[in-house]
Write a structure and sequence with these properties.
Number of domains: 2
CATH architecture of the largest domain: 3-Layer(aba) Sandwich
Strand order of the largest sheet: 2-3-4-1-5
Order of helices and strands: HHHHHEHEHHEHEHHE
Helix content: 55-70%
Oligomer: single chain
Number of helices: 11
Low-confidence stretches: none
CATH class of the largest domain: Alpha Beta
Number of strands: 5
Radius of gyration: 23 Å
Length: 241
């Protein structure tokens, strides 16, 4: 009967129950555990297995380039960062409110590290997200125009719980890229949260996105419900010693 149970569970792809079956059956026999409790323990093992698989899938889909966390961030080396503000953002209420986060500061000050840490926290708590280098995202949006996959790509990006766009700065953009980026942000507006890291102040966005009217409309949406984190400290990439 035990072999048949193993075969049936494997067929149903109940990996957690399959892995726990032998140990739980032996424990039930040894401790005279009631059948109802045995079923509960096996189901709990399966639920834990499915949660782990779901987490691994979300982290894989997020395409995080580094295994950085907020716990590993060197706050002591960057005193200009308000730890309380970051801790509050890590509580993820901004996601539930569909608010945005914009991290501004010079190169190397920790913007990307904080952004990745917040995105990872979101994935750990059941949210779907994705990391994009800004130039890669805008190039992918532009390429979608050629094969007419723009609508499908925008639908995917606009449904993500959180979209992280890293290094918005002096990019090499075509007018079509500015237009489609505006469309993306318009579709995410008040629906889902976006995290952006940039080395530019808001008033400098016109320099690389072009059209003042379009940029004003974009920033109006972006900043409507937004937490701006300004980092004025030293570069964390300076040689040590």
């Amino acid at each position: 009967m035990r072999d048949e149970l193993q075969t049936l569970l494997a067929h149903l792809r109940f990996e957690g129950m399959t892995a726990a079956l032998d140990a739980e059956l032996e424990r039930a026999e040894r401790e005279a555990i009631p059948p109802l409790e045995l079923v509960y323990r096996l189901l709990r093992a399966e639920a834990a297995s499915q949660r782990q698989k779901s987490l691994a899938y979300r982290l894989g889909q997020a395409r995080l380039p580094w295994d950085w966390t907020l716990e590993s961030f060197p706050f002591d080396a960057q005193p200009s960062i308000n730890r309380g503000q970051i801790k509050a953002l890590a509580g993820l209420d901004f996601l539930r409110r569909a608010s945005n986060i914009v991290l501004t500061g010079k190169t190397g000050t920790g913007k990307t590290g904080l952004a990745i840490g917040i995105l990872r926290a979101a994935c750990l708590n059941g949210y779907r997200g994705r990391f994009y280098d800004a130039q890669d995202l805008l190039d992918e949006l532009y390429a979608s125009l050629a094969d007419r996959s723009t609508r499908r790509l925008l639908s995917y990006l606009s449904r993500l719980d959180v979209l992280l766009i890293d290094e918005m700065g002096y990019l090499n953009l075509k007018p079509e890229q500015t237009n489609i980026f505006f469309k993306l942000m318009e579709e995410r507006y008040r629906r889902h949260a976006t995290i952006i890291s940039t080395n530019l102040d808001y008033e400098e966005w016109h320099n690389f996105l072009g059209s003042k009217a379009l940029v004003d409309a974009l920033l109006s949406r972006l900043r409507h419900q937004c937490h701006t984190v300004r980092i004025d400290g030293p570069s964390l990439r300076e040689p040590q010693g």
